[in-house]
Design goal:
The chain is an alpha+beta fold and 185 residues long. Helices cover 44% and strands 12% of the residues. The chain has seven helices and four strands.
């Protein structure tokens, strides 16, 4: 299977089994079911090329109504494999949003195979909520998020609910849902 296809297949599986299957994001099922989630693979191997890909995808959202593309998952299989480097890149991504006046229009949610929340230990279960098969920049429309929040009154509770949900997973369930974390064991 070609690398870009393999990356899209792995991310689609993760989206459906983990994000939607565990209900980690209460807003993900509807646009996914309506085929309004764009999954695109960046072949970037450096920050500059990745910034160009990110800008292209943001411009595409500007030009496309939410009824066609609600959100974009920019999959990064060839760059930012190190979580520290990924976090450093987010500063450049934020600058791109500011420079193009997209702050308040779009926001980025972040996913990485080695994701680790500040203050958490690398092996803490809570990190599983943001661990994906590849580094991903999830571009979210702020207006759509605000609309969705009207129907979800206690959004502040989602991180704690998600943490409790992944902490209850058995070792077998973790291996099934996150096979990319267990390669080489």
């Amino acid at each position: 299977m070609e690398q870009n296809t393999a990356a899209r297949v792995a991310v689609a599986r993760w989206l459906n089994a983990v994000v939607i299957g565990l209900n980690l994001c209460p807003f993900a099922a509807k646009p996914t079911g309506e085929n309004r989630v764009r999954m695109v693979v960046s072949n970037a191997t450096d920050d500059e090329l990745l910034l160009q890909d990110l800008q292209r995808e943001l411009e595409l959202l500007d030009a496309t109504p939410a009824s066609e593309i609600e959100t974009i998952l920019l999959i990064i299989p060839q760059h930012l494999q190190d979580f520290f480097d990924y976090n450093q890149f987010l500063n450049w991504a934020d600058q791109l949003l500011k420079r193009n006046r997209w702050t308040g229009v779009y926001q980025l949610a972040t996913f990485h195979p080695d994701y680790c929340f500040a203050g958490a230990e690398p092996d803490d279960a809570e990190n599983l909520t943001n661990r994906a098969p590849y580094p991903i920049l999830h571009i979210i429309r702020e207006a759509s998020l605000e609309k969705a929040l009207q129907f979800f009154p206690d959004v502040e509770a989602v991180p704690e609910i998600n943490k409790a949900r992944v902490e209850k997973l058995t070792a077998e369930e973790k291996q099934e849902l996150f096979p990319y974390l267990f390669r080489g064991i």
